Amino acid sequence: MAVTLACVPDFDVLVIGSGPGGQKAAIAAAKLGRRAAVVDRTDSVGGVSIHTGTIPSKTLREAVLYLTGLNQRDLYGQSYRLKEDITVADLTARTQHVVSREVDVVRSQLSRNQVTLLPGTGRFVDQHTVAVRDAVGQDRLVTAEHIVIATGTRPARPASVEFDDRTVMDSDSILSMERVPRSMVIVGAGVIGMEYASMFAALGSKITVVEQREGMLDFCDGEIVEALKYHLRDLAVTFRFGETVAAVERHARGTLTVLESGKKIAADAVMYSAGRQGLTDELDLDKAGLRADKRGRISVDEHYRTAVPHIYAVGDVIGFPALAATSMEQGRTAAYHACGEPVHAIQDVQPIGIYTIPEVSFIGRTEDQLTDDLVPFEVGVSRYRELARGQIIGDAHGMLKLLVSPSDRTLLGVHCFGTGATELIHIGQALMGCGGTVDYLVDAVFNYPTLAESYKVAALDVTNKIRQIDRMAD
Ligand SMILES: NC(=O)c1ccc[n+]([C@@H]2O[C@H](COP(=O)([O-])OP(=O)(O)OC[C@H]3O[C@@H](n4cnc5c(N)ncnc54)[C@H](O)[C@@H]3O)[C@@H](O)[C@H]2O)c1
């Protein structure tokens, strides 16, 4: 039962958490003329994405690509390396710079939009009141007509494993590692595990990935996942699929990972990336009449409203897909709904970008999904080695796949692997979003030489196949 406010609240929209979802919710409300505020700890402004997630991990990846010369491998041979002995300081100097720049951008955007930043930790007192505890433990009570929970997630840490954040780490503490490990076990072959596996393998660490399932990234194109595995094996990554980590022991000379099968793996370090936990334990949700599930996640409806209609939740704290890009749209959508403004629902078809080395990105459905759904499709493929730009940049392994409906020639899926995949995917997204057909790609003139040309090559491939099938049917 929702409580009504007895007097004029301090804010129209109060957001807890200043990550991508929270920022966009507060800024959208402010742009609609509402009094908006965001609660966050001073050292966390910008959220998990800026401090321990997307921004530092992608900056680290760029440093790895640059320092190891991995992008130029096919141009200069395996031995090309900008620096023979890459240190943690080399890797983190740039990360710290980018993180602090991004925090400045968030602070400036909030202030330019007249969003009040309330420093501290927020927790519910009742359905319209949040207590904000500052750094010296003082509580300030703040009331609001609408509240948006955007507190994000943290890496899940199994109780059975003793983390020391030096040799047994998660994807937060690995960012403050003391040295590049000679060997490391990565637990979990999800997106985070594979991104770090490829970065450390590129740095020369001997990586063993332990994954309890028989495969990995099963939501991606199967051929691309095989290509990624091939590349990682080439960088000396060992996969242990169908194995579950039972315990991790710390010893003077490193770690011993014990698998349920009884096998043991010795390594300098272990990184856990076996899922994430919603940051809801400090919120006193029960005071607002709310509860989280056992993974700390809050359920919402299609407008991002929780069980209490004036309290919304957006971003990773509501679970899948837990992507910064989606969180921003959820924040904006929630704020518009709270302010009574019309807003389009977020499009069903959204791109996924996985920042492994090489990158993987896709939009729409996979071949397996289309086959399961009995949807007819044809495949057009382009390989970077056939493109002048692919040769110039030394990426001979990249590829782009178009999945096309033979009846109306619309795109059903686009799958990309290799340099620039996370950028290139947006050409396919734009075409799909506008309901265009593959014929546009056949007819369009692309800059030469570019990787974007792969769209034209794949489009010609698939339209030729469709033509042949049509001829055979006649
Ligand atoms: N680029 C991106 O899109 C990006 C980047 C980072 C994070 N994320 C998001 O962050 C979230 C969390 O990612 P994640 O990779 O930590 O989690 P995940 O849930 O995606 O993957 C964890 C993996 O660990 C395995 N696992 C769990 N316990 C295990 C054990 N004891 N032994 C062996 N294997 C075990 C699971 O089977 C699973 O495959 C996801 O929602 C992801 O989409 C996305």
Structure explained in plain terms:
It holds the Pfam family Pyr_redox_dim. It comes from Actinacidiphila alni. This is NAD(P)(+) transhydrogenase (Si-specific). Belongs to the class-I pyridine nucleotide-disulfide oxidoreductase family. The protein is of the alpha/beta class and 474 residues long. Strands 1, 2, 3, 4, 5, 6 and 17 form a 7-stranded mixed β-sheet that branches. The protein starts with 10 loop residues before the first strand and ends with a helix. Bound molecules: nicotinamide-adenine-dinucleotide. The site of nicotinamide-adenine-dinucleotide (NAD) has 23 residues, from helix 6, strand 10 and strand 18. Nicotinamide-adenine-dinucleotide (NAD) binds next to helix 6, strand 10 and strand 18.
Chart the SSEs and their pairings.
Layout: E1 11-16, H1 20-31, E2 36-40, H2 47-51, H3 54-68, H4 73-76, H5 88-112, E3 116-119, E4 121-126, E5 129-133, E6 139-149, E7 153-155, E8 168-170, E9 183-187, H6 191-203, E10 206-211, H7 222-234, E11 238-241, E12 245-251, E13 254-259, E14 264-267, E15 269-272, E16 276-278, E17 311-313, H8 324-338, E18 352-354, E19 360-364, H9 367-372, E20 378-383, H10 388-393, E21 399-404, E22 411-417, H11 421-433, H12 438-443, H13 453-473
Parallel strand pairs: 1-2, 1-6, 2-3, 6-17, 8-15, 9-10, 9-15, 10-11
Antiparallel strand pairs: 4-5, 5-6, 7-16, 12-13, 13-14, 18-19, 19-22, 20-21, 21-22
Helix pairs in contact: 1-8, 3-5, 3-6
